[in-house]
Every structure is written in structure tokens, then in C-alpha cells.
Amino acid sequence: MIEAIDLTKKYDSLTAVNAINLQIHRELFVFLGPNGAGKTTTIKMMTGLLKPTSGRVIIEGYDLNTHSIEAKRLFGLVPDTPVVYEKLTLKEFLEFIGNLYQVDSRNFKRRFHQLIELFELKDRVNDLIQNFSHGMKQKCILAAALIHDPKVLFLDEPTAGLDPRSARNLKDLLKGLVEKGVTVFMSTHILEIAEAMCDRVAIINQGKIVAQGTMDELRKLSKKNEKSLENIFLELTGSAEFDEVIKYLEDQ
Predict the structure, then answer these.
(1) Radius of gyration of the CA atoms of the chain, in A
(2) Confidence at residue 251, expressed as pLDDT on a 0 to 100 scale
(3) What are phi and psi of 125, to 5 degrees?
(4) Alpha carbons 220 and 78: distance in angstroms, whole number
(5) What is the pTM of this model?
(6) How many helices (H) and strands (E) in the chain?
(7) How many angstroms separate the CA atoms of 11 and 53, rounded?
(8) What is the mean pLDDT of residues 214-235?
(9) What domains can you pick out in the chain, each with its CATH number?
């Protein structure tokens, strides 16, 4: 379970995230927003990479501020940009991450083989990561985030750089994790994926949550009776200017 309570981040006079409240429990929760809306800032605060100006984050009952180590043991993180130790081989990198989380050797071996099979990395385990493409590095980060069987998983644009087969495998994997009781918090710009996969959605705009709920609940918020997540998103995040341009072009 993840809780964000009045979570706020300010930079001088700029309020990047403004007192947001979220409660996510054993579901696939999709976090949406335009560029610069506060998505990545929120994820960084919820994972301890950025200290909030005010507010709290609770991970499986542990306050991230007062029980940071206990909370961080329970989640995996896939950041928006893959950061890896490029002078290690894939196997060495995953062993390093497994040791950080104190995964015992039997469970590590099981998870290692599952993940390299899932992400089609079997033939690259002894290659240096510096020779991997961006998409391959993304697969490394995904495998590292899952190596310790986390109870909570944070993903910031996880399909970026993945080939279609790997993206499909990831979608199937996330659905399976939720069925096993894992809480998944994911941001993405691919609204078709979000709509197909999500249990619930939150939309952030200019640092504030402007909508939150299931797809059916979001449809009820639409003043234009929109049905697709894409159209609902555009309506709720202020697409009036875009609509005016389209209308102008249609009238010409």
C-alpha cells in the first residue's frame, strides 16, 4: 500500500507539487499529466529521491521520512532514465542489486532466470552493460527493480525504449504482479496502455490532482461526455487552446 498525505514540493516561489493525496492498495495505478505537471517530482518524493517541502509518504505502513530503510526494502523503482553501472556485466549488476536487498542465493537464482527469460536477455548476461542499447538498459533496470520480489513497484515511463514484444511482456508481467497482491504505481504518456491496464487513474496538472478514480468514474467527470482516456485527459488538463486551433483549421 502507498499513501501520499498532503505531499508538497516548492522551489522558491514555484510550487511543483501542491498538497496531493493518494491512497493506492494492491492495484495498477496509473499517474498521468502533461510535461512539467509534477509526475516525476511526485515519484521522486514517493521513493525518497527528493525530500518534500511538506507532507508524508507511507509505504506498507512505514513512514518514508522516519523509517526510510524499512520502506525502501519493500519497493522497486524504474526511473524515467535508466541509470546502470556500465562497467559491470548484466549478471554482475543484478547480483549487486540482489546483494543490496539481501536476496538469498536460492531466491536470487530463481528470480534471475525468470527475469532474463522474460526480457530475452539470456544471451547477454555476461556482456558489459556499456555495450547495450537504450532499450536493453531499460530491460536491465526493470529486471533490477524486480529481483527482490517487491511488494510495491514504482515505474516512471517504463515502456520507453522497449521493443513491442518486451512492452507486451511487461504489460503481462504487471497484470500478474497485481493479481499476486503487488501495488504498482506507473506513469506513462501512452494513454492507450494506461486505459487498457489501469485499475485506477490520477491526473495531475500544474502540480495538483485534477481527477482520480476508475475509468467509469473519470467518464462521469467529463462535461463533454468523453469516453476515451485520451479525450478525458485532454479535457481535464486544459485542452481549450488545442480545440480552438482544430476548430479554426476546420473552418478554413
Answers:
(1) 19
(2) 56
(3) -65, -25
(4) 32
(5) 0.89
(6) 10, 10
(7) 9
(8) 90
(9) 2-74+151-251 (3.40.50.300), 85-149 (no CATH)
